[in-house]
Amino acid sequence: MITTQTFDKLMAHEGNPCLTLYMPLALPAIHHDNNRIRFKNLVQDAKELLGAYEAFDETSIDNYLQPLYQMEKELEQGGYPWQPGTGMVAFLDQQVWETYPLPMKVKAQVQIGESFYLKPLLPLLHDSERFYVLAISQQDVRLFEGNRYEISALPIHEQMPRQISDVLYLDDPEKQLQGHMAQKVGVGASGVMYHGHGVTNKEVAKEELRRYCRQIDVGLQLQLKEQSVPLILAGVDYLVSIYREISDYKSLMPSGIYGNPDLLREEQLLEKAREVMLPYWEQAKKTAVKQYYAAQAHNKATADIEQIVTAAHHGQIETLFVARHEAVWGEYDPLSNDVTLSTEEQMRYVDLLDEAAIATHDNGGTVYLVPADQIPDDELAVAIFRYPMMS
Known about the structure:
The chain has helices at about 5-10, 30-50, 60-65, 65-75, 165-170, 175-185, 205-225, 235-245, 265-295, 305-315, 350-360, and strands spanning about 20-25, 85-90, 95-100, 110-115, 130-135, 140-145, 150-155, 230-235, 255-260, 300, 315-325, 330-335, 340, 350, 365-370, 380-385. By secondary structure, it is α+β, with helices and mostly antiparallel strands. The radius of gyration is 26 Å and the shape is globular.
């Protein structure tokens, strides 16, 4: 999994050359030959690109590409050298050899330069597309962090109850003792029985549910602190409704995932969470487009690639739209602040769209990596500045 820490480490790495390989993956059980042939072609592309370097002869190229050759051999023998995913990425140089599964489709390509090619990974780190899912039932409480492509469980705060019996026990030691005794005779956490009260989990009064939800929210606030990341509630209608009434979390999504969340696997939660978040994401993107057009009148926007690259490196870009599968070749000199454009790919040049996107992300800006036809004014990149730029 590509985490923010992994991305930052790769972004800081420099070498000569650094090889990055992206490949979409077909289901191995059905399309093994497609994976094998596509990977073989990418390895051949890597050999040809390395051949353009004066320091590499045929022997040194073969030595450099040994990890890729090993993967190719495993594929030829019917193996599958990658973790399950929709795509994969490999990073290689003299010190680094790392591969990662990707939860999204990627364009098959090999890039070689002085740093790794990271632009296709930016959607995984899109802060504006992060969300949390709080799955609550009387038997379990789970917290997840996700984005458009993946979701993962988080450990919950020690102040957060794991089930409703944890809250019911807090104010009555006798209940705690009787509950433990009931469990000893075969009544588990899903049906804790309190002898002498005639109450089971299914019959818990609304006030006890409110107390349960309130304690969950206390733990949630302590864990997430002052974040404004959207939170999706998952649970049966009445429990979700009670939680909304008592919660102090500022970014609760108005829609939720309804039903028993204990029956949902992580991939099912992700699918349902995406359905909740998609309208929110699309509206945020439309708002950013409107802000771009409005910013033009105040000298706070540009579609000029050279200005975008320099502004990105100086932390001046608030929002950047970049074409997903396009490239603008050239180089940026941080000492002179000069940008040189080229009409063709050469060894000395880098993709300036990648350069701008990575620098914007690194400086806390928002990057929308979208198809070219979704960028305003039919450009390959447009930017909104944090403040008006000098003419």
